[in-house]
Design brief:
The complex is a heterodimer of chains A (about 140) and B (about 425). Chain A is mainly beta and about 140 residues long. Helix content of chain A is about 5%, strand content about 30%. Chain A has a seven-stranded antiparallel β-sheet, with no helix packed on it. The model of chain A is unreliable at about 10-25 (pLDDT under 50). In chain B, helix 4 (about 75-90) crosses helix 5 (about 115-130), helix 10 packs antiparallel against helix 11 (about 215-225) and helix 12 runs antiparallel to helix 13. Classes of the chains: A mainly beta (about 140), B alpha+beta (about 425). The interface between A and B is medium-sized, with 26 and 24 residues.
Chain lengths: ~140, ~425
């Protein structure tokens, strides 16, 4: 497996924007030659969330999406501002509760699970389908 | 000038629906602190004849029988949804004034098709946040409010009304009772009615000089705004607060010193958190506590006391010292308390205060660090740290039996999907 090193993760995810603290203090003596290369530490929020006003988190219960690497207990990041489209993983309202499914628009509109145990749900009228956002990432803790 | 007022429809009730598709069409009410009375209701609940401020115990049975759903106030959820609505608006328009938790004014001066923009606002907020809103547009803030009234009351408008056109403006104002005009309270309404002024249009057509003489220059400004002369501009900078009050009604009557002191300490800590969020320091601390006016059989008592601190602070420990002192003075045996509160006032910015020449300002070492750490822990959603005087069991604390999960602000309560 090939791994790209992206940098160190922020220690402190409470502050959204970290300013390296020694830029603010008065230094005495020789400055460190590394100071010119200081960058902000990497912020996971910045990577995962494009539109904070439209993004929320849900927790998965069950194994219906296991073949899309979404297991029981995973946390999903859902963006409501993205247009639903063919093959997108969505949060849909089914019988009054929210479920995570893959949306297929062709040949017929339906919601499918990523687990052969569960049959697809056919959508007969478009009004019956309510999408509460597109799943843009899944977080699994090991 | 062109202003728009964006106002959320039945805000609290709509918040409760975002993560509950099963109650999308059901009557929904939200209850006040201690589940006392109705403070918000959906359109469907209104159609059942339920009114604002109705006591919950009176309507509970029949409302639930008719398929209604009730919630205790979930302020964590409402605050988060509100900030999302405002963020979305800021994405759509550069000039936004957050007017209240569920309303914002926009300055649309120079925009060509305002009505189209209004529909765009509605659709975007509905899609991004799941919140239904109405948009009113007019040449003044007061007329934008009038337009919003029209958008709310006439479904044919599709939730957007533009009153740039004078004819349209007059037509709507002729239908609008004068008490619905922004700035007309119930007392002014009565006086206007007695002068034969019943509608917004009748108010708009009065001579402004007469209004100034008979009422006030504030109402004169309202009349001018109704006539289309903009007098109230957009305020984008939120005003710094002048005082912070935290007070609550207890879930049951309380008559022992420890419980009262716990409650006051708890409110004081909360007030200090708010003070620090505003980056302010305060010098005046007040405590008040009272009995239930409606229990005529009880001995009545209403106590208020203030304490001026030696120097401005936002350290919870300093405030707690002061409130403890005042609570001891205010508390009386054999009295059934129903409400208590803490007020902080006389604010200073950081570093602005001039100390007393002859005394050292006994600023606590590391106070700022400690308070910042406490605030961080308490907003992290993981756990809470409190001062011992706030108590542990809190038997006096608010009753919120019907509260929905904090879907957006607590990892443990985020929605579950299957």
């Amino acid at each position: 497996m090939k791994i790209d090193y992206l940098g160190d993760a922020s220690e402190d995810n409470l502050s959204l924007l970290e300013i390296p603290y020694f830029l603010n203090t008065v230094r005495v003596g020789w400055p460190s030659p590394a100071d010119d290369y200081i960058e902000r530490s990497i912020d996971l929020n910045e990577y995962l969330i494009k539109n904070p006003a439209a993004t929320y988190f849900v927790r998965v219960s069950g194994d219906s999406m296991i073949n899309a690497h979404i297991g029981d207990g995973a946390i999903l990041i859902v963006d409501r501002s993205i247009e639903p489209g063919h093959n997108k993983i969505v949060i849909a309202s089914i019988d009054g509760s929210y479920a995570c499914k893959r949306l297929l628009l062709k040949p017929k509109v339906c919601l499918v699970s990523e687990n052969p145990k569960y049959p697809p749900i056919m959508i007969n009228k478009e009004e019956e389908l309510e999408i509460a956002g597109i799943v843009i990432a899944s977080i699994n803790l090991y | 000038m062109t202003f728009a007022l964006v106002d959320c429809n039945s805000f609290y009730a709509s918040c409760e629906r975002i993560f509950r598709p099963d109650i999308k069409k059901k009557p929904v009410v939200v209850l006040s602190n201690n589940d006392g009375c109705v403070v918000a209701l959906s359109k469907e609940a209104k159609q059942l004849g339920i009114k604002m401020c109705e006591p919950w115990f009176k309507i509970e049975k029949s409302f639930l029988r008719k398929g209604g759903v009730a919630f205790s106030s979930n302020y964590e959820l409402y605050a988060d949804v509100s900030s999302r609505v405002m963020q979305t608006l800021e994405n759509l328009s550069p000039k936004v004034e957050v007017y209240s938790i569920d309303e914002a004014f926009l300055d649309l001066t120079g925009l060509k098709d305002c009505e189209k923009f209004g529909h765009q606002c509605r659709e975007t907020i509905d899609r991004w946040v799941g919140m239904p809103v109405c948009v009113g547009i007019g040449p003044t803030k007061t007329l934008a409010k009038v337009a919003n009234y029209g958008a709310k009351h006439y479904p044919a408008t599709n939730g957007v009304v533009d009153l740039t056109n004078l004819k349209r403006r007059k037509k709507l104002m002729a239908l609008m009772p004068v008490r619905e005009v922004w700035g007309v309270g119930s007392r002014i309404n009565k006086r206007l009615n007695s002068l034969g002024i019943e509608t917004a249009l009748e108010l708009a057509e009065i001579d402004t000089k007469l209004i100034k003489r008979k009422f006030s220059s504030v109402l004169e400004r309202t009349v001018m705004e109704l006539q289309g002369y903009s007098c109230i501009g957009l305020e984008q900078q939120p005003k710094t607060k002048k005082q912070i009050v935290v007070s609550r009604t207890f879930s049951k009557k309380v008559n022992d010193f420890n419980s009262v002191n716990e409650a006051v300490s708890d409110y004081a800590s909360r007030a200090c958190e708010k003070l620090r969020r505003e980056n302010q320091y305060c010098k005046m601390v007040s405590v008040f506590m009272r009995t239930n006016y409606f229990r005529k059989q009880d001995k009545q008592y209403n106590g208020f006391r203030s304490y001026k601190l030696f120097s401005p602070t936002n350290d919870t420990r300093d405030i707690l010292n002061a409130t403890r002192h005042m609570t001891e003075q205010l508390f009386k045996e054999n009295i059934n308390f129903i409400k208590a509160g803490v007020m902080l006032s006389d604010f200073y910015d950081e570093g602005i205060y001039q100390g007393d020449l002859f005394r050292n300002i006994d600023e606590r070492i590391n106070s700022k660090k400690l308070m910042t750490t406490i605030d961080k822990i308490n907003t992290s959603g993981v756990g809470k740290v409190t001062f011992a005087s706030q108590g542990i069991k809190k038997p006096w604390s608010m009753r919120r039996l019907l509260k929905s999960p904090r879907y957006l602000t607590n990892w443990k309560e985020i929605p579950i999907v299957r």
